[in-house]
Amino acid sequence: MEMKVGLVDLTSRTSEDLTVSDDLLRKYIGGSGLGVYFLFRYGSPQADPLSPENPLIFMNGPFQGTGIPTSGRHQILGKSPLTDAFGESDSGGTFGYHLKRAGYDGLIFLGKASSPVYIAVLDGRIEIRDGAFLWGRDTFETEEELIALAGKPSSVACIGPAGERRVLLANVMHDGRNARAAGRGGMGALMGSKNLKAIVARGEARPFMADEKAVRAKSAEKAKLYVEKMGAMTRFGTPGGVAFAEQNGDLPLKNWSMGSWSEEVKSITGEAMADTILTGNWGCTACPIRCGRDVAFNGIYGAGPEYETIGMLGSNCLFSVLKAIGSGNDLCNRMRIDTLSEGSAVAFSMELF
């Protein structure tokens, strides 16, 4: 088995393909493990996180594209601008899958472009294209524009205005209004520091499987099990855990200074969402659980808030209005700010005044 990684020098606007040896695959497997290897190979622990010397790495795992249940995830790595230490953020959605179909298991970005660019990964080739026309647009607009240019099926990873301005809470968005985020560590700020607005991936490559028939059969068996055992997650998503967390003292309340919110919490649970603003659910590639929330209210439609967002933008700020939390979630998704860190910052500010 071989994995192919694209090495992109944004300073010189050139790229080359790296073939990952079998020895490296046996040591690091892929995903986070291989990403860390490349981070230490091309980066430095002493590098300023927002300097051209800090690599930005997108990496798939070895099961990506095989159809194995819950395998449709990818990692984004670099030295974190938020913590000045190792940074890694995980995301679902469809981007990792389409990157694999485009012929790549990962991308490594070095240097810094002199002006805004976006990357088109199309059927085994990498193109560095002018991205000035995208600069300043929110993530929903960016995704729609690039999907129109690349054609379907394709997928986009991008930053919003927060990442462009190197806001340390900025993250990387995938799948537009379905809003699958690599949320933690400020990877959006790192991407913005390189003048890299977005990556669009499209292709028709198929992953190698030593026994594809056996993989398909076992995957179908496991998918059926997920459907049977994960019904509550499909119906309520991660917000289904809000009430349980409150009952067990594990829901953030006013910066953890309170222990009970038993009446107010009832209006922001997964059950409350299902009864009010929920319009459907959405699933990442190769995931039969489909825990993503589709919501619509007050002219807003798209991904609803997850458990963590409800906890930090909601209960931690003592907000018990689900639509208000959903509006905050939508704004953060458009600007591409991590809702957890944003909720923490808002709650801290509320304590100050």
Describe this structure in words.
This protein is of the alpha+beta class and 353 residues long. The chain folds into two domains: 3-202, Aldehyde ferredoxin oxidoreductase, N-terminal domain (Aldehyde Ferredoxin Oxidoreductase,  A, domain 1); 230-352, Orthogonal Bundle (Aldehyde Ferredoxin Oxidoreductase Protein, subunit A, domain 2). Helix content is 34%, strand content 23%. It is built from 13 helices and 15 strands. It has helices at residues 22-28, 31-42, 95-101, 139-150, 161-164, 187-193, 212-229, 231-236, 242-247, 270-275, 307-314, 322-335, 339-352, and strands at 3-9, 14-20, 56-60, 74-79, 86-91, 106-110, 117-122, 125-130, 155-158, 172-174, 180-182, 196-202, 278-282, 292-297, 300-303. The strands form three sheets. A six-stranded mixed β-sheet has the order 2-1-6-3-4-5, sandwiched between helices. Strand 14 (292-297) and strand 15 (300-303) form a beta hairpin. Helix 1 packs across helix 2 (31-42), helix 11 (307-314) crosses helix 12 (322-335) and helix 11 packs parallel to helix 13. The longest helix has 18 residues, at 212-229. The chain is globular. The model has no long low-confidence stretch (mean pLDDT 97).
